[in-house]
Amino acid sequence: MKRLLIIATVLSGLLFSPVAAVEPSEIMDDPAMETRARIISKNLRCLVCRNESIDESNAGIAKDLRLLVRERLEAGDSNAEVVAFVVDRYGEYVLLRPQTGGSNLLLWGAGPAMLIVALGLSGYYLRRRSRAKPAKVDALSEDEKARLAEILKD
Q1: 95: CB partners within 8 A, 6+ apart
Q2: Which fold has domain 17-94?
Q3: Which pLDDT belongs to residue 148?
Q4: Where are the domains of the chain?
Q5: What are the 10-residue block averages of pLDDT along the chain, 154 residues in total?
Q6: What does the H/E/C string look like for the chain?
Q7: Which of 67, 71, 36 is nearest to 54 (CA)?
């Protein structure tokens, strides 16, 4: 029974693990260069598939980006230079993990800042509301009381 459970676990791990979309014709001859290309590819976003890396995507542009990464590596660029080249060409959106500096710092801080502002405004509103005097309600006149009694009879 244990063997069957172990085999099922291993098979499910193999079946449900992400599969790289790299085609055999794209693989570089040098294993070290291929490893570098895979590392870079796993950190670049497919522009069609959104939250999928170019290493996992089967889209045409993902294949073009994988080939571009390999061409830049063969040209002698470092990993950082390859990523910088792709970002210059396609914009920072191509990074799966955007940078946290520069103008992106505004985007990273906007969510927590808005939460703090919302909590402050709601606290101010609730404090003002609890301190407010209740509205004065006038008593019913004799005509209103008679009309109400008539309505309630029906």
Answers
A1: 43, 44, 45, 83, 87
A2: Helicase, Ruva Protein; domain 3 (1.10.8)
A3: 92
A4: 17-94
A5: 72 52 68 88 87 86 89 90 91 83 81 96 94 84 92 86
A6: CHHHHHHHHHHHHHHHCCCCCCCHHHCCCCHHHHHHHHHHHHCEECCCCCCCECCCCCCHHHHHHHHHHHHHHHCCCCHHHHHHHHHHHHCHHHECCCCCCCCHHHHHHHHHHHHHHHHHHHHHHHHHHHHCCCCCCCCCCHHHHHHHHHHHHC
A7: 67
The whole-chain average pLDDT of the chain stands at: 84
The two tokens of residue 119 are 């909590």
Output Rg (C-alpha) for the chain, integer angstroms: 32
Burial of 86 (0-12, 13-18, 19+ CB in 10 A): buried
Does pTM top 0.90 for this prediction? Answer: no
Quick: pLDDT tens for 103-123.
Answer: 778 888 899 999 999 999 999
- Say if residues 33 and 78 touch (Cβ distance below 8 Å): no
**Cβ(43)–Cβ(91) under 8 Å?**
no
